[in-house]
Amino acid sequence: MRFVLAYIDAGTGSMIMQVAIAAILAIPFFLRNQIGRAARFLRGQGSPKESRQAVDDAGRH
Amino acid sequence: MTPVGTEPLAPSPSLSPDPLRDPASYRDPASYRDPSGFVYRRDGRLLRQVNSSYAPHWDALVERGLLTELVDRGLLIPHEPVDTSLAAEPGAHAVIAPEPVSFVSYPYEWTFGELRDGALLTLEAERLAMEAGFTLKDASAYNVQFQRGRPILIDTLSFETAKPGEPWIAYRQFCQHFLAPLALMAYRDPRCGLLLRDFIDGLPLDLTSRLLPGRTRLNFGLLSHIHLHARAERRFAGQLTGTNREGTPAEGRRGPRMGPTRLAALIDGLRRSTASLRWEPSGTEWADYAEHTSYAEAAAADKDRTVEAMLRASGGRRVWDLGANTGRFSRIAAAAGCDVIAFDIDPGAAERHYRVVREAGEEHILPLVADIAAPSPGLGWAGAERRSLLERTDADLVLALALVHHLAISRNVPLQSISALFARLAPEAIVEFVPKADPMVRFLLSSREDVFPDYTIDGFRAAFDRDFEAVAEVPIEGSPRTLFHLRRREGATPLESPTARA
User: Fold this and answer.
1) Cβ contacts (< 8 Å) between A23 and chain B: which residues?
2) Distance (Å) from the alpha carbon of A24 to chain B's nearest alpha carbon
């Protein structure tokens, strides 16, 4: 038996829901990562972008 | 970063719970939820106590270098370890001195872009934490502040060691604090961000689901993280994980589990859903004002020069630009060496301003959405958890350009009350008076009775003379408007309620 407890109420429905969503998202996520890794390998590039740059790029309008 | 000493605690004088009674030493009224530690001020210095109950997580964070990495990447506010003799209460494992945030703002005062950048920052911090074997145990929007023009996490104790297989504890909080208001702002109206004032623990997902248009069910991110999430909350309300519907332990049932790839996929999915939310700021009341203002080019240039000269003459460093619109004069103030908090009632104008600031990498301007005629009140526990906007003033100078006529005529605020508020906010003010002959005031009066006989330049002088002396009075060339540089009178009582004089 395992209860998920924290100082905030994580919500049982939320926990169950996120597990279900993550299961669906994991397939394209895994494939994207593999394709990205292969593409970087072929282009001879190194690691992905720095965090701050990644946040900036994602937030750009 | 080095672990701090564990020497016995010196007896600490008790801290006031009320920052107004003792502004130098008090426990932050907002810092009471997390048992890991709390923020307080001692002799004016901002400190954070790390409690013993959090010690294993803290030591792991320090030893494995996650905090240093987050600080180096500009995602987390820097801090210095200090001696534990500065602890506020017994049971301290460590004490740190975080870099103070120059101005505390709240999510209900942010533009769409600011809230979205705060969300993306939170998700990036969670991604890095997961890679290092940690997790964010909360995802409150109040853990984000803006420092030097950028969002940054301020709660150093939000990270804890991840438990293998455990879902993200803060998932619901992230959806309520960030995704739900952003979705409503993007799909319904940017003013929905103000709902965060009524729901300071985040927007209820069932309410969000009802308010969002039906077409959002075609968006996988919003369908899953908002609509189905709200339904799941209803379906499992009051039921513990690992139990049956009656709440008794269910044989062979475990709480929900998920591996690291699925967790990473969830965070990536949230990031994609958040980043894909768009809102274009046009068509709101004032978003296009700067392009359609009644100023002739020469008059606008003269106004720029006069405002800049007055700013330089004042010597004030911290400026509150009230009614900043898209920030023309905020940028003049910033170029003159000032730190500017730029308020506008219109979320479209403030958003456009934020985009300009962000693109330019401007570090000295923070655009916010606020109605100066109804500023953010004190909220949360005892009305003190989130401080009112007026309580947070630290301005040296108020900039009120093309604002007074809107307050006096559109909002019926007496000129004396406007003067009293400005005097309460700062010791100096640069104020533009727009007479009835001006096209904008004529427009404001075109659809209503003129019940403002005192709204004249002499009436303005008389009203402001109670609180301020005029340092300079300069007519704007090619315009009927006048700029005033005002200095608060000696002996004026800035905290006096404007209504107390009646």
Assistant:
1) 258, 262
2) 9
Residue B74 falls in which region: left (phi positive, over 0), alpha (psi -120 to 50) or beta:
left
Is residue B472 a contact partner of residue B313, using CB atoms and an 8 Å limit? Answer: yes
Q: Inspect the interface and report whether the beta carbons of A2 and B355 lie closer than 8 Å.
A: no
ipTM (interface pTM): 0.77
Nearest to A17 among B75, B120, B228 (CB): B228
Tokens of B467: 């609180």
Residue at B143: amino acid letter = N
Biggest alpha carbon distance in chain A? Answer: 48
Strand B397-400, strand B318-322: pairing? parallel
Distance CA B213, CA B216 (A): 6
B173 contacts A8? CB cut-off 8 A:
yes
Predicted local confidence at residue A40, as pLDDT: 86
Report the DSSP pairing between strands B79-82 and B92-98.
antiparallel
pTM of the model: 0.89
Query: How does pLDDT run across B170-179, given as a tens digit for each residue?
Result: 999 999 999 9
Judge whether B355 is closer than 8 Å to chain A, CB to CB: yes
Beta carbons of B235 and A13 less than 8 Å apart: yes
Query: Reduced to 3 states, what is the DSSP secondary structure of residue B419?
Result: helix
Instruction: Indicate yes or no: CB of A18 within 8 angstroms of CB of B242.
Output: no
Asked whether the beta carbons of B95 and B49 are under 8 A apart, the reply is: yes
Asked if the model's pLDDT at residue B118 lies above 60, the reply is: yes
- The three-class DSSP label of residue B164 is coil
- The torsion region of residue B137 among left (phi > 0), alpha (psi -120 to 50) and beta comes to alpha
- Using DSSP, state whether B364 is helix, strand or coil: coil
B148 touches chain A (CB under 8 A): no
Touching check for B171 and chain A: CB below 8 Å? yes
B111 contact A CB<8A: no
